């Protein structure tokens, strides 16, 4: 189980940025923390058995719960 958000922000003349965040939960549904990142290209997803390993990725740097 996880909750996530992706936010795109207009920047200065240099371009844009985005932020993605994800709340992490253990198997019994207790929140165990949060991962987030900011960059020019952001994404999120799940890997593992039944999507048990949620992750966020910004500019090629992936972080898992």
Please, could you describe this protein's structure?
It is built from no helices and 6 strands. It has strands at residues 2-10, 16-25, 31-39, 42-47, 53-58, 61-64. A 3-stranded antiparallel sheet has the order 1-2-3, with no helix packed on it. β1 (2-10) and β2 (16-25) form a beta hairpin. The protein starts with a strand and ends with a strand. The mean pLDDT is 81.
Mean residue pLDDT = 81
Radius of gyration: 13 Å
Q: Helical element count?
A: 0
What distance separates the N and C termini?
A: 11 Å
Order of helices and strands: EEEEEE
In spatial order, strands of the major sheet run 1-2-3
DSSP strand content: over 45%
Q: List segments where confidence is low: pLDDT < 50 over at least 5 consecutive residues.
A: none
Secondary structure tally: strands = 6
Q: From the helix content, strand content and strand pairing, which structural class follows?
A: mainly beta
Shape: elongated
Query: Major sheet, described briefly?
Result: 3 strands, antiparallel
The percent range for helix content is under 10%
């Amino acid at each position: 189980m996880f909750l996530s958000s992706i936010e795109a922000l207009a920047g200065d003349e240099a371009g844009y940025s985005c932020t993605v965040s994800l709340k992490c939960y253990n198997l019994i549904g207790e929140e165990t923390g949060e991962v987030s990142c900011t960059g020019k290209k952001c994404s999120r997803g799940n890997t593992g058995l039944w999507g048990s390993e949620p992750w966020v990725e910004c500019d090629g740097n992936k972080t898992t719960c």
